[in-house]
C-alpha cells in the first residue's frame, strides 16, 4: 500500500490539468488513495474531446464544454478515468472546509447551499464563451497552485483566484439548477446549514449546543452527521475554523490579546492554550515562523 505524504493528506483541495495520452494514468497510486479516503466534492470541466468516470459503479460520459459536479457521496474511481486522444480536462477536488475558508458574503453561501446539499452528480452544458472563461480561470488557478512555497503571495493569489472561480461556477450552477428537480440529502442540507451558520457566528459562539439549537437538532445528532459526512465532529469543525482565523489574524500582525478579544476567548492565556493544543506551537511561535 502506498505511504501517504503528510503534506498531501492535509490538503483540502487538489487541482489537475489532464490532456490526451490514453495510456497514461491520470492519478498516481498515492493520489488515488488520498482522493478515495477524503470527503471531497469535485468539479470537472471538459475543454476539448470527451472523458468518462466510474461514479458509484456507474460510468458517466462527459463531453466537450460540459461541467461535472460531484458530491462526496458520489465516489469517483480515480483509476477508472477514460479519455479520448484529443481531450483536455481541468479537474479540482475540494473539501467543504476549503470553500468556507474563502471570503464570501452570506448570499454566496445561500446560493451554493443547494449545490452542497446534493447527494449525487450532475453534468451541465456550457456555452462556448462560458467554457472558455472557466477554462482560463482553471488554468490560472492550477498554474499558481503548482508554484513552490517560496513563491511570494502564493496563498493570497490562490485564495483570490479560487473566490473568482467558485463565484463563476456558482453562477453557472444556479442557472442549471433552476431546471433540475431538487431533492436534497437531508443530512447534507443540515451540514450546509451548519457551515453557513458557522461562517456567520464562529467568532461569538464556540459551542456545539449553540449551532445544534439554531438548526433545531440535538448536539449529538449534529456531531453524528458531521462525523459521517466530513470525518470530523462538530466541535472539531468549529475549532478548525477558529484556528484558521487565528492564523490569519496572526499573519496580519494583530496582537495576541486583540485576537483573543476578536474571537471571544475569555482571556489571552486561554486563547494561547487553545491555539497550542490545536496547532502544536504557541501563537507567538507561529507568528515567528509565518
Automatic annotation (TrEMBL):
The keyword Transcription regulation applies. Residues 192-289 form the HTH araC/xylS-type domain. InterPro entries: Homeodomain-like_sf, HTH_AraC, Tscrpt_reg_AraC-type_HTH. Pfam families: HTH_18 (PF12833). Keywords: DNA-binding, Transcription, Transcription regulation. Gene3D superfamilies: Homeodomain-like. GO terms for molecular function: DNA-binding transcription factor activity; sequence-specific DNA binding. PROSITE patterns: HTH_ARAC_FAMILY_2. Coiled coil: none annotated. PANTHER family: ARAC-FAMILY TRANSCRIPTIONAL REGULATOR, TRANSCRIPTIONAL REGULATORY PROTEIN. This is AraC family transcriptional regulator. It comes from Sphingobacterium puteale.
